[in-house]
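Minimal example, chain plus coenzyme A.
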Amino acid sequence: MSLFIYNVSLYTICIPDIEQILLLDKYFMDLGYEDRFVLWDKEDFIYYLSRRDVIFTVLKKEKIVGFCLSVINFDESELYKIVVDKSFRGKGLGKFMMLYHLGSLKFKGIKISFLEVSSKNELAISLYASMGYELVNIRKNYYGTDDALVMRKFL
Ligand SMILES: CC(C)(COP(=O)(O)OP(=O)(O)OC[C@H]1O[C@@H](n2cnc3c(N)ncnc32)[C@H](O)[C@@H]1OP(=O)(O)O)[C@@H](O)C(=O)NCCC(=O)NCCS
């Protein structure tokens, strides 16, 4: 079965796609984070999809099985979200999507990608470390009782 990967904007996406993205984003809740830090509603996604300084990448089979998005600031960017559908995890798709996403950023002249991750999110941290992100700062108790790790990768 084929798998498609591409960058989307509000002009290339339809409402069912946004509903699927919302469902995927809810998986963050499994990690026990507080809503106010991570869970976006439909309007949030529509807002980010409409911004020109945002790269929004989706992985699609029959439905969207993963997405990630970065916000650009001059020649730097910040990865705001990356999620792969639970039943598709551990198959290399997160890494594949990140590689495509970072390639798109580099193509736009972006030189650095920053991100922030909970110190308890071991899977995400090993994904980022395996892609060459390095730890540059720790924000104590940023997620309630969890620290936030700030990581950086030169593109
Ligand atoms: C983090 C996430 C996107 C990774 O996606 P994935 O498709 O499962 O990841 P991949 O299969 O591409 O694996 C990438 C790397 O992660 C690590 N990894 C993945 N599964 C792992 C496991 N079960 N045990 C240990 N490391 C693992 C490995 O380092 C792997 O690289 P390698 O195969 O070259 O060794 C996915 O787990 C997810 O959606 N999590 C919930 C949302 C989330 O936490 N997002 C990050 C918020 S900052």
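The longest strand covers residues 64-73. The mean pLDDT is 91.
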